[in-house]
Structures
1.
Amino acid sequence: MKITIGSDHGAVELKEEVKMVLKEFADIEVKDVGTFGTDSVDYPDIAEKVCADVTSGKADRGIVLCGTGIGISIAANKIHGIRCALCSDVYSARMSREHNDANVLAMGGRVTGFGPAGEIVRVWIKTEHVGGRHARRVAKIMALEK
Ligand code: RB5
């Protein structure tokens, strides 16, 4: 599975932690689009870079991080084809895959600690969409883009 990850300056440390967790998965290839320092950057630019890889098929899924996860998830969800789930607990992370087929995960570096974030990522990576009635609802979400 190919994953593109990005954060603004509010979650650079969490990005490094998430990349460490992703190394636990032998079949995951990670591309980091930045940012790489503490200089202030604009989270919509990072969302755009990550989501471009997802919508083009260069990545299977994306992970976007900012201070709260709110701004970058709002930006990601403006991009056609993206279903971005802002998660701060493991149950929501699982449901975002099973029910919503989220193709982008968002978290907040100033909100979610490294331990919970690691568990959220592990569950989000491993969980598959269940289809059925949930596939119908996801199709209706995507139809809202038209
Ligand atoms: C940047 O200071 C901060 O606004 C950003 O990381 C994020 O929390 C926005 O939603």
2.
Amino acid sequence: MPLPIILDTDPGIDDAAAIAAALFSPALDLQLITTVAGNVSVEKTTRNALQLLHFWQADVPVAQGASTPLLRPARDAAYVHGESGMEGYPFVEHRRQTLDKPALLAIRDALINAPEPVTLVAIGPLTNIALLLIQYPACREKIRRLVIMGGSAGRGNFTPTGEFNIAIDPEAAARVFASGLEIVMCGLDVTNKAVLAPEFLASLPGLNRTGKMLHALFSHYRSGSMSTGLRMHDLCAIAWLARPELFTLKPCFVAVETEGRWTAGTTVVDIDGRYEQPANVQVALDLDVEGFRGWVAEVLALAP
Ligand code: RIB
Ligand code: CA
């Protein structure tokens, strides 16, 4: 039985690959996409999500979410994904619209109407998830678990110690990590290993129209390169859901720094239990890279 999921995302070129996998993995049932400001503005991430769903003629509702972090000014990663957030492919015009309710209400209604608790997947800043928990705390009971791409037990990629999704909205991440939700964290410790090899990237245009489109986007994606390999950060969150055996997890106490002038947005991952605090996050510390690559090839071959 495919696992129902709700995906909160900031497309974003690696988000596009994650959305493809979420749509075409037989293990998953993508029920709702919500968008958040992150890689680019929420207007652009929403437009990008709609373009992708139109490309695949996928019948998945989209609801627009937060336009800024909880407290801090918005920043972006256009230097990685291009000004549009999904540079490189000429998506056709379409008339697809978002739901006429904001992301928070869309997630709340989906959770209320679900017969069983639903898995949330967040592959952008955690602003929408934090707002959901603040405004509708009863929803927590209907969330089976939260799987994120975010954080790092080691160095960062947006600040010296902060991974982008966390560092954009540290206050949101701190609220989510302290919420008591069951959380699986796919951070840079595994996503920096999740590299698609140049040979595979070169084979994409011949795979199918999805491969052709992703190849065009990947040619503009700056987390690695087509000649050395590209880091598929967001795909890891989907991969864990479809193939958890590819990952090595460790239950850890994780706190998010929000005060430090130089360290705000750092996920402090207490791997050795120094603080003697109960573990609140399952942290992915290792990845079967060849198994991941095999899964990516398999799932993208299922796309049109
Ligand atoms: O650090 C990588 C994360 O930041 C990914 O989710 C990427 O899409 C960007 O949002
Ligand atoms: Ca993302």
3.
Amino acid sequence: MSQTILVTGGAGYIGSHAVLELLSADYEVVILDNFCNSSKESLDRVKTLTGKEFTFYETDLRDRQGLATIFKNHSIDSVIHFAGLKAVGESNEKPIEYYENNVVGSLVLFDEMEKAGVRKIVFSSSATVYGEPEKNPISETAKLGHTNPYGRTKYMIEFILKDIQKAKNWDIVILRYFNPVGAHASGDIGESPNDVPNNLLPFVTQAAIGVRDHVTIFGDDYDTIDGTGVRDYIHVVDLVLGHIKSLEKLDKDKGLFIYNLGTGSGVSVKEMIDAIREVSKKDIKVVVGPRRAGDVGEVVADSTLAEKELGWTAQYNLKDMAESSWRWQEKNPKGYA
Ligand code: NAD
Ligand code: UD1
């Protein structure tokens, strides 16, 4: 019998790609989302792309009764927990909303899981828990830090999960994502920022299609190959396949596991803009501005532990990331709107 997975935040950017891959791998999927940063459209498209059914609940993580109903109606084997607010800048302006949504929301979810006897979870964490890295590539044993409320919510939830694991014997995989980018090969689902994008790639594709006049490079005086910021961009499809490997891991092994998901290769801001220029054949105007507050020069993952223990490695390269991002942008100039 196939397993049933509860996906929180399943209508979002990463969640919708995960639902698609889970359905393709014959999992039964139950989704919870309150659409605070997404719409039903992504899920309609997943249904069309896969030709498969899933159950959807428009429910907030903090709605105890709503969660209890889901656990009563379905025999859930594992949870993949994507739901959360994720904008660093906004988290500085709205710390109460971030702690309430991410930390309180996660606590309500964990409590209802425990009450229902569901004790397996894969959690979306972030490279942000390394704060300002002391060296690259960053391994899972590196010192942790936090530089903003968003990062602190991830840091806190990681520790909450560690305590629950010790006390209640849960089986947990914490995945620390580096920089997820790209879209499904169809170009029918992708990242659809509601507002001005915070992240580099959606900003660059929007500039290429003419929604933005130019891209501002946040500083070109870092100690990197060309002076611009270097990140470890990872294709969203590779990233979600890491979640399926994590579910398989929890079928075999008991305990708490933490993995970085990245490619191990750094790409600079200039290199990323050039990659989009190449695939879009568009001229992209660039202006060099000052460094963004809180930014660091280089953040690159050591993902060898995921390779060794999950049997997972990233398959897609920079060109694949740029092509799929551009296909999504070209087919959906205004996102899902
Ligand atoms: P997203 O905003 O596209 O998806 C999150 C989804 O969760 C949205 O559909 C939103 O409506 C839903 N949601 C938020 N709060 C909710 C609540 N209280 N109740 C129910 N639903 C709620 O973001 P994403 O990029 O898909 O990120 C998914 C997860 O991965 C997040 O936890 C994020 O912090 C983490 N992450 C993302 C990145 C990235 O660059 N995208 C990097 C590292 C970690
Ligand atoms: C940001 C978040 C981080 C989060 C990650 C993935 C901050 C400070 N950090 O990281 O917590 O986990 O996204 O969602 O926001 N850049 C430009 N011009 C732009 C946008 C970005 O030059 O218009 C540069 C940045 O300076 C950086 C690189 O592009 O060097 C990538 O930026 P971004 O996509 O925002 O990701 P991170 O900074 O890695």
